[in-house]
Each structure stands twice: as C-alpha cells, then as structure tokens.
Amino acid sequence: MGMLKKAGLIQVRRGTGGAEIQKPLNEITLLDVYHAVEVVEEGELFQFHDHPNPSCPVGATIQSVLELILMKAQEAMELVLKEVTMEDIITFLNKKIG
After folding, report:
1. Could you give the CA distance from residue 34 to residue 38 in angstroms, rounded to a whole number?
2. Nearest alpha carbon to residue 82 among 36, 33, 29
3. Which residues form the domain of 38?
C-alpha cells in the first residue's frame, strides 16, 4: 500500500479509514502498478548469474547472447501492461463473476 501511495495511485487514511484510489480507474494502467510496486529495477526483469564460470563456454557467453532478446521480451510485456487499465480488469472480473 505504501508503494501505491508513494506513486500517487492511492491515498491511505490512518486507522480504520482504509484507502482511496486517487485517479480514475481508466487512467491507471497495469504498467503504472507494476512500476509502483517496484517488482524489478527498470530494464532488469531477467537476471543473470553474477559470477559465471569463465571456463564454461555457455556460462561465459550466454548473457551477451540473450541480453537483446530478453530486453525485447521485457519491452513487449511492458507494452501490453501499458494497454490494460484497472477499469479493464474490473470489467473482465465482472464478466467472469457474473
């Protein structure tokens, strides 16, 4: 909740006051939420071993081979998240529930 508040997505009231959404749901995207909760550092969705064995032909080169591919995969995921709003999620949920 604190991360969502810091991102300006919600306002939290002390005590039993609860939380209130600060923007219209059609203006909050899944990408906004993804960034707000700091799931990963920007551009670092996919992680590599910090100290690969330099004697291992795969371990020594796999990062450079996969880096561009995985960066493109992260960009594609973020483009999808940017297109889905919280209003969309609620609409989908309501259709499924009922």
Report:
1. 7
2. 29
3. 2-97
The total number of residues written for the chain in this structure: 98
- In this predicted model, what pLDDT tens digit does every residue of 14-63 receive, in sequence order? 777 788 999 999 999 999 999 898 776 665 667 676 777 888 888 788 88
**Three-class SS state of 86:** helix
Sign of CA dihedral 85, 88, 94, 97: negative
Residue position matching structure tokens 């670092």: 44
Residue 53 belongs to a domain with what CATH number?
1.10.10.10
CB of 45 within 8 A of CB of 77?
yes
Give the global pTM. 0.74
* Structural domains of the chain, count: 1
Q: Residue-wise over 58-75: b if at least 16 C-beta within 10 A, else e?
A: eeeeeeeeeeeebeeebe
> Within the chain, where are the H helices?
2-6, 30-36, 57-83, 86-97
